Amino acid sequence: MSNLKIIPAIRTENITYAVRDIIVLANEVAKTGKEMLYLNIGDPNIYDFEPPRAMIEATYKAMLDNKNGYSPSSGIRPALDSIEREADRKGIKNVQDIFITTGASEAIELALTALVNEGENVLTPTPGYPLYTAISSKLQAMENPYYLDEDNGWQPDIEDIKSKVNDKTKAIIIINPNNPTGSNASYETLKSLVDFAVEHNLVILADEIYDKLLFDDVELTSIASINPNASVITFGGLSKNYMVPGFRIGWGIVSGENEILVDYIEAINKMLRARLSANHPEQYGIPVALDGDNEHLVLAMEKLTRRRNMTVEMLNAIDGISCIKPEGAFYAFPKVDIKNEDSHFISELIKETGVVVVPGSGFGQQPGTRHFRVVFLPQDEVLEKAYKSIGSFYQKYKNEFE
Question: Most CB contacts within 10 A, which of 7, 74, 199, 207?
Fold first, then answer.
């Protein structure tokens, strides 16, 4: 019998996911009995957030009514219609197609897979959500990161974007509100980005999964609303706004000129048909959620605003750490003044204090800078204890390791 190792595909070599990878170390530390304070996973349900009751009841009723088989590949009609109404409320016109997926993650993967060939590239925000670089690695696409400008509230750096485009560039990704920084791009920034994409015939992949989680009465501009002729896929879902990441329900809204997009849309739909369907009964919750009153967000945003403020105030009070105030989502991306890699700082932080955050290197960052991502979903007392521990540890780290 042969005992040669099975060799995995080369395309998997560069796939990493820092948000989950850091848990390996955290689990080892937890085994020692140390109290753990988890500020690493963006899952509202493990804290004190709940989804709208009516949405849950609609899903439960669908299960009782035996809507438990396959759905149409693109999704059920009532859900698609409600997503189209939501697109209209966001100002998205010229909609050519809508498809429902197993979380927004699947929509993103389908959109990239249908578009990008080996050796081509997609302009990807840095810092940005690691799913995009993982998919690019799987597709054997070239990484083409563009930077967000920390000195400008983490806005996309348009000049950097212009310097990165080449004849192999197929698309540009915008995450807005941004994960991991919590930034909300301005209309002027987005207009410049749209104009650039149209000029270079790029598809805009617009991740707007946090579009209802906005602070201080700021407004979100859906990038597809700026130019109805731009080729845009707007991603959304129930996970964050409606507090059900475990439902795995997301969608893509394709807008722009039909004659430009028609073949691309068919390529996406080929894959939609091949994988059969997204979760079926959960789709009945979509119309109830999107066309509902969103009352659950009132309490959620009260909590998140208080915790966002605490995060910014306490982290900025630490000499050597600075934090831009997030305008959306539930993340902050503070900078830390250290010489070592931020992964080393975070590893030592977890071992010493039990506070689990994610190193900035897991999201990408300007060379020479050091950051970490904080999730401020946990209860106030957890955040307060964690930030005090980070402050004490930082001074100790500077003395011992630098």
Answer: 207
